[in-house]
Amino acid sequence: MKNQALNHTITTKGRKFHTEIYTKEEVMLLVDQCNKGASGLRNKVLIIVLYRCGLRVSEVLGIRTSDYNQQEGTLRVIGKGNKMRVVGLDSQTQMNLDLWMLKRKELGINGKGNPPIFCGISKQNFGQHLQTVYVRNLLKLLGKKAGIEKRMNPHNFRHSFAHDLLNEGIGLQHIQISLGHSGIATTSKYLQRFNPRETIETIKERVW
Q1: Which candidate in 80, 83, 150, 174 is catalytic?
Q2: Is 67 helix (H, G, I), strand (E, B) or coil?
Q3: Neighbours of 24 (CB within 10 A)
Q4: How far, CA to CA in Å, does 172 sit from each of 1, 52, 100, 178, 187?
Q5: pLDDT for 81-93, tens place per residue?
Q6: CA trace torsion 147, 8, 45, 193 (10° rounding)
Q7: 44, 136, 158, 159: the active-site residue
Q8: CA-CA distance, 30 to 58, in Å (whole number)?
Q9: C-alpha R_g of the chain
Q10: Would you call 80 a catalytic residue per the annotation?
């Protein structure tokens, strides 16, 4: 019954929502709601990769076993327009990913057939692709359990990633490459969608 609920949702197609930025504390609170079993570990790591790599949900679900270079600490990603890029993993993200890869192996999911890294583990979809709707509904469920009032959406992790990089002083070109944007103008426009209230508060805090 729970799996059925995660795979069906009421569509919000056509509706426009304000971009939400998640803090590190909110993301950690979110992943803490994942169950302690194998599916919980998979979901936890999936969320971490979404957040720390700034991937689209379709990109993260499309990553296959051969796309992970453990020695280099990188993931090969196929983005919009079938464009390939390589993204780096910070040490904590890679450590969590390695835990899931080990669990996959214990479950009997290995490199045979080059299955998706974030795959199904039930009898019905063992080693198969997860659906985007599953991730969307999972985030809403975990957000509710965590008491997070912000609207939970996979793409907002991508915005949060860009927001964090900008605040850390990372240059616009590096952010563009990480996001897989075709041009710097797209990245600039992307960053302008952040909450204007934050910009106002930042200006108010300037000192002479």
Answers
A1: 80
A2: helix
A3: 11
A4: 45, 17, 32, 10, 7
A5: 888 888 889 999 9
A6: -70
A7: 158
A8: 20
A9: 18
A10: yes
User: In the annotation, is 24 catalytic?
Assistant: no
Among 54, 53, 34, smallest CA distance to 44 is for 34
158 in catalytic set = yes
- Domain coordinates of the chain in residue numbers? 21-204
pTM of the predicted model, to two decimals?
0.80
CATH of 21-204, one of 3.40.50.10950, 2.30.30.40, 1.10.443.10, 1.10.730.10: 1.10.443.10
Phi, psi dihedrals of residue 112, rounded to the nearest 5°: -60, 125
Residue 123's SS3 state is coil
| 82 CA to centre of own chain | 19
Over residues 19-41, the pLDDT tens digits come to 788 999 999 999 999 999 999 99
Please compute, for residue 106, the number of CA atoms within 13 A of its CA located in the half-sphere on the CB side: 9
> Given 42, 44, 52, 56, which residue is catalytic?
56
* 181 catalytically annotated: yes
150 C-beta neighbours (distance < 10 Å), count: 13
From residue 97, give the alpha-carbon distance in Å to each of 50, 70, 110. 12, 9, 14
Q: Could you tell me if 52 and 89 are in contact, meaning their C-beta atoms sit under 8 angstroms apart? A: yes
